[in-house]
Every structure is written in C-alpha cells, then in structure tokens.
Amino acid sequence: MLFLIDDINFFDLEHQYAIASLYEGYIQDMEISVTSARDFFTPREIKNTMLKMLKPQQNQTFFDPACGTGGMLIEAYEYIKSHHGQKASQSMLLFGQALDSTGALISAINMASIGKPVEHIYHGDMLQGYPDHFPKGFDYVLANPPFGIIKDEQARKNPFFKTLYYEPLLLQSFIDAISEEGGTSSVIVSITTLTRDIAAFVDVRERLLTECDLLMVIVLPPGVFAPHTDVRTSILFFRKPGPTRETFYYNACPSEESLKYEHPLLDQYLSQAVEACGKWQQYRISGKGRPESIENSWIETFNNETFRENKYRLGTHCSYVPMEEPLLPEAPIDILLEYNHRFYHTVDNLSLPVELTSQLLKYSQEFHQQLSAFHKDIE
Asked: Are strands 213-219 and 184-190 parallel, antiparallel or unpaired?
C-alpha cells in the first residue's frame, strides 16, 4: 500500500482526477444527502474557477451555507495561502453550515486540520438562518447548494416565499448573507433558475438584480455533475450594493460536449472562462476596453422596466440550446401563488387612483394569507 501511495504524483492532472473520483465514490458510499434535495461533490476545477473570479483578499470572512464536507472552505483557505501567504491564511475566518450531521462532522474535522475553530461549522438548516455567533454579513459567500423539492414544513417556515423549490429559497438566503458593504457571492445554480416563471423564482431574480450587482454568469458544460444529475448549471457572481447595470455571460462549452468532472478538457474550458471574465472585470474597473467581441460571450444590459415585463428572466440571449430538464411537478401552492403574483404586478403597473390601487393590493395580500392558511389545512 505504501509503495502504491508513493507512486502517486499529486501534481499530475490525471492522478488528481483519479483521486477526486475515489473521494467522490467514498462520499457517495457514505450516503451523505440532504433530505429530499440533491447534494453532491463539487469538482475542484469549478471551485478553483469560483475563487479565481472572486479574487478574495486577506483578513476577510468566508461562508459556505451548504458546506457539505467543507471542500469549498478548504479551497478558499488554500487560495489565500498560495496568494497571500501562510500568515494570511491563518488569520482568515471560515464559516460553514451543513444540514447533514455527517457532513457537518467531516467539515468540522477538516477545519480543525487547518487550525480553524470547529464551532464555526454549524449543523442546521440554512433556510432557518444561521447562528447568532456568526457575522451578520459575510465578505464572501461561496456555495454549490442542493436543488430540487423540499419538504412542506421547511417551506412554510420561510418568511419570503411559499414554495417547494430549494433554488429561490436558498438564493435569497445568500443575498441576505453577504455584507451590505461590498459583500460578494459566487454560487452554482441550475440554468432554469435564471428563466423559470414561477413566482418565487421571479421574486428572487428581482431581488438579485435590484439589490445586488450581478457581475458575471458562467454557463457550465453539460454533465459536470454526472452521474448525479445531467441538469445544466451556471455560476453566478454578484455583490452588494446594487442595482445591476450590465452582466457578462460566458458559455464555457460551446461545443455542448458533455464533460464529466474528470474530463481533461474541463480545466481548459474553465481557464478560458476565467480569462474572458478577467477582461470584463478589468473593463469594470477601468472603464476602458469593453470586451464585446470575445467568442462565446455576450453582455446583457439591465433595464428595470424591460426586465420586469419579462419576469426578470436572465440570459435570454444565450447562444446555446439548453439540455431539456425534467421539470419537477409544481405544487398547488406554487400554481396559486403564481396567479396572485401576476395579479399583484398587474395592479401595480396600472394607472389607477391611489385609493383603488391600495384596496386591490390589500385584497391581494389577504388572498395570499388565505392561500397560506388553506395550504396548511389541506396538509
């Protein structure tokens, strides 16, 4: 066994992929899962891409609200260590939250191995907020959260939405978690989060575009999370304060080739994405050299009225054809709230007398309360 380990070249990409595959299988065998949501290993290439785009500085706070076994936090630690030195990595503050108890335990062990406080790893549901001893606003939030349908009792406890979908609930939690003074987030979401018309998705996209500055979106290749899911995903980069003015999109796999995480081309495509987005970041800083002719990219200009009419859909000028995703069945509460959502925005856009508008909006709010009570009763 020792001779076999001695033959491993930890700096060789093929050996790294083999180790990653072994680790992935080990985690899968442990059956670490998050209730009815889908939770899985994040390829190192993707974590590195997220950090390269954020370019985090020293003496900052980092938070992964869906930390699993702590891999994202470890990568953040290694990034600061390699770019700012050992002393800077020791002074950085890492926080994580995991719904699964086994994942939280492994994450705490990982934190202890690099000299970080284990009490900064919390076993709990992000939808219910994080502990009082955590900072009220983080400098960086990084996450590859679960997606899918959650249990009704979890959704009911959320003060913002009544929905059975994880994505909008978690995304609005990430928006709340970053600091109001320049807090930045990099999170992975399904492509349909950017376009789905259900009220909860529309509302969270409105918050994202009006309260935050959505800087960049990297569309990831198909298959990067196979065999767990073939759902197409993207990485969002946003910061506070908002609103969004322009967003740079980059398609990291124009050939639409399915690239599982150990595929050697994945690192190449993501490196090209980092280079392209780096030019956009330079333009945002200097105001010079607007990168409008970069292959596989496009720029979306935000106009509140136009986006509002279009339900704040993002990436509508995508040059790729998304993979078909089997839509999750809509819960009755989602369907009813969608109609109420449309009614609310229709009334809000009409040029009606103030008294009549106020009365109609009052009816809308009462209807929302009755729906919630009805939903609770029928369960």
From this structure: unpaired
Q: How many Cβ atoms from other residues are within 10 Å of residue 147's Cβ?
A: 22
Q: What residue type is assigned to position 239 of the chain?
A: R
Number of C-beta neighbours around residue 2 at 10 A: 6
Write out the H or E segment, with its range, that includes residue 95: strand 93-98
Instruction: Of 253, 142, 145, give the one whose Cα is nearest residue 190.
Output: 145
41-85 pLDDT tens trace: 677 888 989 999 999 988 899 999 988 888 899 999 999 999 999
Spatial distance between the Cα atoms of 323 and 327, rounded to a whole number of angstroms: 12
Q: Which residues pair with 249 in a beta bridge?
A: 217, 298
**Sheet of strand 297-301: strand arrangement:** 121-123, 93-98, 61-64, 140-143, 184-190, 233-239, 213-219, 246-251, 297-301
The residues pairing with 237 across neighbouring beta strands, listed in sequence order, are 186, 216
Please say whether the structural domain 32-309 has been given the CATH code 3.30.70.360. Answer: no
Residues 216-225 pLDDT 10s: 999 888 777 7
Rounded distance between C-alpha atoms, residue 333 and residue 364, angstroms: 15
pTM: 0.74
Tokens linked to 112: 């202890």
Buried b (16+ CB within 10 A) or exposed e, 295-319: ebbbebebeeeebbeebbebbeebe
